[in-house]
Structure formats: C-alpha cells, structure tokens
Amino acid sequence: MIVGVRGDMVFRPGGAAETTTGHPLHPTHQQEFIMANQQTQQDPQQVQQFQACIDACLVCAKTCETCGSACLAEASVAEMARCIRMNQDCAGVCFTAASLMSRCSEYAQSMCQLCADVCEACGAECAKYSMTHCQQCAQACKSCAQECRKMAGGPPRQKAA
C-alpha cells in the first residue's frame, strides 16, 4: 500500500521510501521524504478513498516511461515522435495527480480530470502501434483514465472545435 507520493518518490507504511521505479532511496533522502510527507499527510481514510486512482496513476506513469524509452529504441523512432511526447506528458500528469491525491489537495479533482483527458489521448496514440510496449501502455492509459474519471466525478470533456 502506498501512503504518499512526492515527485518521483513513493512512501510506504513503516517508513520505507523508494523511487517510483522501485529503487530504494538513500537513507538521507528517505528521512527528508518522511518529514515532508508528514507535514502534508491528511486523514488516512481520506487518502484511502483515492487509493485505486493513485495506484492506477502510478502504474500508468511507469508504463508510459517504459513505453517512451522503448519507442526511442525502435527503428522508426522519427515516426513515433508524437507517441514519445505523449508518453512523457502522460507520465508527468499521472505523477502529479497521484501526488495531489496523496495529500488530499483541493486541486486533486481538477488534476484527475486533466489526467483522464491526457491518458485517453496517450492511449489512443499508443494503440496505433503494434509493439507490445505500446499496447500495454494503451491499456494502462485506459485503466487510469477510467479511475481518474471516477475520482473526478465526471464524463469526458468535449474537445474544442
């Protein structure tokens, strides 16, 4: 279970902290993270209601980062430039949404609405490609968009003409 997220760090029960890629943090950074997280921590029940969305955002962000890196190694990398940019944007928005929900920010709902929109766009772009990493990313984006819509409490926004 994740108790909090700050930037690219994940705080787990018992004081364990790691990067979102699963690498343990240096003890000095762990202590800084714990202190910062304690200053912003909200009612655990309130954070718990967001947990499914936080988890979906973190999975999506990690999957987008992986997909973007894999796209850079493809022979047709120039053709995949939009996909790579979308992966980067989506990962950034997902990390931010998870962070805002973790501290029960008043902006979490708005950020989740934006996150859902970005995830849908990234998922649609990744779905155009047959590579396994792109298909996995498209699925992670779809799942994250669904969780973010539930958290934000609304249907997809209409795109401007």
TrEMBL record:
Gene3D superfamilies: 1.20.1270.360. It comes from the Bacteria. Coiled coil: none annotated. InterPro entries: Csp_YhjQ, YHJQ-like. It holds the Pfam family Csp. PANTHER family: CYTOPLASMIC PROTEIN (PTHR37310:SF1), CYTOPLASMIC PROTEIN-RELATED (PTHR37310). This is Four-helix bundle copper-binding protein. It comes from Nannocystis punicea.
